[in-house]
Amino acid sequence: MARGETIKITTISIIFLILLVQVKDLKGFELIFSQTLFLFEFIFKFLKFRHFKTQVELIYDEIYNIFILSPPKEENIFIARILDCTMNYECLKYFCKISLSSRIFEKYNPTLSKEWDIIYHKKIETLTN
């Protein structure tokens, strides 16, 4: 997907530069100016997408390190590192204005809520005993 977006933005930019060189009158300039604003919207979305992809890869590497390469010995440090990765991901989603589709949320929410309740109650029981 990233490669396709890169090709699309590059192609649009080249076409824009070719058209800009061809402008001979004011109407042509107005057209090019309006297209520039449209192009900047595409470029901004592309840059935001690239930033998101890069940051998600970094978060993935961190999670891989936590679970596979060097899991912490202490449970508190393990939980803190997982929460740190989760918060980094959630902040990244907010920054890039990415939200979960309501269809996916409605599909998985009941099962995940039940699973979370089971985990929560088991943890509470172990802490009280």
Spell out the blueprint of helices and strands.
Blueprint: H1 2-22, H2 26-69, H3 75-95, H4 102-128
Helix pairs in contact: 1-2, 2-3
Give start-end ranges of low-pLDDT stretches: none
Indicate the mean pLDDT.
Answer: 84
Q: How many β-strands, per DSSP?
A: 0
Helix share, percent: over 70%
* Percent strand: under 5%
Distance between the termini: 51 Å
Q: How do the SSEs run, as a string of H and E?
A: HHHH
The number of helical elements comes to 4
Shape: elongated
In total, the number of domains comes to 2
- Output the radius of gyration: 23 Å
Structural class: mainly alpha
- Biggest sheet overview: none
Please describe what this structure looks like.
With 129 residues, the protein is an all-alpha fold. The protein folds into two domains: 97 residues; 29 residues. Helices cover 88% and strands 0% of the residues. It is built from four helices and no strands. Helix 2 runs antiparallel to helix 3. The mean pLDDT is 84.
Features:
mainly alpha; 4 helices; 88% helix; single chain; 129 residues
In short:
88% of the residues lie in helices and 0% in strands. With 129 residues, it is mainly alpha-helical.
